[in-house]
Design goal:
Layout (H helix, E strand, L loop, with lengths): L19 H11 L3 E5 L5 E6 H8 L8 H11 L10 H4 L13 H11 L3 E6 L2 E7 H8 L3 H16 L7 E6 L2 E10 H12 L6 E10 L18
Parallel strand pairs: 6-7
Antiparallel strand pairs: 1-2, 3-4, 5-6
Length: 230
């Protein structure tokens, strides 16, 4: 599954000059937790989130100076955003973005790695959508039939060139069981690794066998080495 299948295309955005008060009003009115900040060319230059706005709620002085500065920084960290008046001053920059044809698993990795709740989706340098954690969670609730269809079509046939008819595939309550015979051990490992990255898959039990054991001629396959093709 790709990001473009989950992303929201009707995105609320602000400019760097938008006041922080207006940003807060947009977040509340649209019931969203953050907005991309875009320049006049549509390029994403940052993201303002609820957390960025909350700095104003601390009520910190713009310049405390000396000993008080050290106390505040010890309690709250970098307090510069507490004096922000515009989106440009409050935003997190550079923005962590993702391409529309990226795998949903890659979006999850970025959100976890960078501790963000949403990713602007960018194509050709311009914003085309946004994907949030809630979108990824919804993808995880897909039916067994949808999961089986993606494994057969996207994983086996399109990505690994394995004939779905040559294997036995069963999905029940997100648990995948696959059996059959493939060309080599590397393919068997790749099949299992790719299936684990399909949204909604809870576990994988592989009983695949292979015609050629090419174990001695390859390095171990890890998930982070997989090309992002589905």
């Amino acid at each position: 599954m790709r990001v473009e299948q989950l992303m929201t295309t009707d995105v609320v955005t602000v400019t760097p000059e938008t006041s922080l008060k207006e940003v807060a009003q947009l977040l509340v009115a649209n019931r969203i937790a953050g907005v991309p900040v875009c320049d006049t060319d549509g390029e994403v230059v940052g993201v303002v989130s609820e957390a960025d706005v909350l700095w104003k709620e601390l009520g910190l002085p713009e310049t405390a100076g000396g000993f008080l500065d050290r106390i505040l920084e010890s309690a709250y960290g970098n307090t510069e955003r507490a004096s922000a008046l515009t989106a440009a001053e409050a935003m997190t920059s550079p923005a962590i973005t993702i391409a529309p044809d990226s795998a949903v698993a890659r979006a999850a990795e970025l959100m976890i790695e960078h501790r963000v709740n949403r990713l602007p989706v960018v194509a050709g340098g311009r914003l085309v959508g946004i994907v949030a954690r809630a979108d990824l969670v919804r993808a995880f609730t897909r039916s067994d039939e949808e999961i089986e269809r993606e494994i057969s079509t996207d994983v086996l046939l399109r990505t690994l060139w394995v004939d779905p008819g040559a294997v036995s595939l069963v999905v029940f309550d997100g648990k995948v069981k696959i059996a059959g015979r493939v060309d080599n051990r590397t393919t068997a490992d790749l099949v299992e690794a790719y299936i684990r990255r399909v949204p909604g898959v809870v576990s994988v039990h592989s009983e695949l066998t292979w015609a050629i054991d090419d174990q001695a001629h390859r390095t171990a396959v890890s998930a982070d080495q997989l090309p992002q093709r589905f």
